[in-house]
């Protein structure tokens, strides 16, 4: 059974369709990517799944229908979104941003939050070095690490990432994607929205291509990466964030 199963999803802005009749699924421990051009509806998909945007259709998580649930309930069930703009608390320290991310664990006591912090510092050693710095003073790559770390503090079962490579230098992009792949071994499922199609297909198990609000291609990542149509549209030139 799929951890996340979306069927017939439709989202509109002011009556104008942004997503039409979209269906996809993500299994436990699987990395699934959604690639496509700007304006295709990729971020809209994630925002509808977490509940920020109203939608029609079915969104099932771990077998339960969640399409009518508020954002907080979806997060409590194990969904988490790292938005494109990262949305950090700039004047707060790295450490305090992580503590806020662990709000879901408050009933388990400070020890649980401290253990999760230690796990995040193992994943992102640079954050441990910067733990006393305000988040607003971090580099772009460090801010992305913190955004991911804060989300992981909630022990999500499904982590949704919106353009994690955006604006980052090639070496940092490689580090971020290495971490994404490493998370698979922890059992966390990942739904990855990316314009860097080359890096996304390398990291993911399966992929969907989204164009003008509709899925136009779907399959395992290796097959899509070898498909001449995908190569021509998305892989013909080196994607941004790659050397």
What are the segments in which pLDDT stays under 50 over at least 5 consecutive residues? 237-243
- Order of adjacent strands in the largest pleated sheet: 6-7-8-3-9-10
Number of helices: 10
Largest sheet: 6 strands, mixed
| Known CATH architecture of the largest domain | 3-Layer(aba) Sandwich
Would you tell me the overall average pLDDT? 92
SS elements, strand count: 10
Assigned CATH superfamily of the largest domain:
P-loop containing nucleotide triphosphate hydrolases
| Helical content class | 25-40%
Overview of this protein structure:
The protein is α/β, with parallel strands linked by helices and 243 residues long. The chain folds into two domains: 1-78 and 156-243, P-loop containing nucleotide triphosphate hydrolases (Rossmann fold), CATH 3.40.50; 89-155, no CATH class. The chain is built from ten helices and ten strands. The strands form two sheets. It has a six-stranded mixed β-sheet, with helices on both faces. The radius of gyration is 17 Å and the shape is globular.
């Amino acid at each position: 059974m799929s951890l996340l199963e979306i069927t017939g999803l439709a989202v509109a802005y002011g009556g104008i369709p942004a997503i039409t009749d979209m269906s996809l699924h993500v299994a436990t421990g699987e990395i699934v990517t959604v690639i496509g051009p700007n304006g295709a509806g990729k971020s809209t998909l994630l925002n509808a799944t977490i509940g920020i945007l109203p939608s029609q259709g079915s969104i099932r998580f771990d077998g339960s229908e969640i399409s009518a649930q508020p954002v907080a309930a979806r997060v409590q069930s194990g969904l988490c979104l790292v938005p494109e703009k990262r949305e950090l608390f700039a004047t707060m320290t790295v450490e305090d941003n992580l503590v806020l991310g662990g709000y879901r664990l408050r009933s388990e006591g400070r020890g649980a939050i401290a253990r999760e912090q230690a796990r995040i510092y193992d994943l992102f050693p640079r954050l441990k070095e910067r733990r006393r710095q305000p988040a607003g003073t971090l580099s772009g790559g460090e801010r992305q690490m913190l955004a991911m770390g804060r989300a992981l503090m909630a022990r999500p079962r499904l982590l949704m990432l919106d353009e994690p490579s955006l604006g980052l230098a090639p070496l940092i992009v490689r580090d971020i994607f290495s971490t994404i792949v490493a998370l698979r071994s922890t059992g966390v499922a990942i739904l990855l929205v990316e314009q860097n199609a080359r890096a996304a297909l390398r990291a993911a198990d399966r992929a969907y291509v989204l164009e003008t609000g509709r899925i136009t291609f779907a399959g395992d990542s290796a097959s899509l990466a070898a498909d001449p149509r995908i190569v021509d549209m998305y892989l013909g030139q080196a994607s941004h964030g790659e050397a």
